What does this fold into?
Amino acid sequence: MASRGKIQVLYQQARLTFSKKKGPSLENGFSEELGNLKTLVHSLTATDFDITPDVTKKRWDYKPYVTDSPAACMEVYECQDFIIGLFLIKPQKSIPLHNHPGMHGIMKILLGSMTVTSYTRAAAVRGRSDGGSKGQGDGGSFSASLVSKVTYTPQSEPCCLEPHSRNLHEIVASDQSVVFLDILGPPYNPKLGRDCAYYFREEPSPRDHSEEESILLKPGPNPAWFTCIPLTYSGPKVNPSINS
Ligand SMILES: [Fe+2]
It folds into this structure.
């Protein structure tokens, strides 16, 4: 049985970090605290969340409405500044290419292994050209560059993304079920222009075969094959009333 301690410390460090992101300048200690948060995240294990491989063996489909759902999620804690969650992916299933508008993100794999392919948006080629939180997913195609394609295990450093770097990614589970910790600041919020958008490759041009892997992406609807089922988190809880 895990103690509340480490998850409470995680919450407090996340709160400290993302409270600084709201200031007029990111040079308000945000970078330093984000580094501290990444270090803390790297130290966490599945045991800290009371997660065992059994969690991935439970049925998480809602038959007959949703069957063979590739992914599930558990909310550990959410506020207006950040969300701490756990994602589960079935073996060899994936989370399709999507964005994280205006967000910083930290992922840490807890069980299994998964390959994350990350892209950085370049410039719009038609339609909207603003790369901020309101520009993605509302009509225009754009070019993006492949930043990395890395397979992560519980021993790996966290996988990180920023508002204007590595902000789009696709996640593919290996042969075993995957559980990973996901911290996003701020959380998705469609009312504030932070909806999750999905992207698809345009027809490849000859240039797409170059080493730089610059590709054209176009937004589209949530793929019909992808659903993410909410599950109840039963691990150590966060107590927001405890400050330090
Ligand atoms: Fe993501």
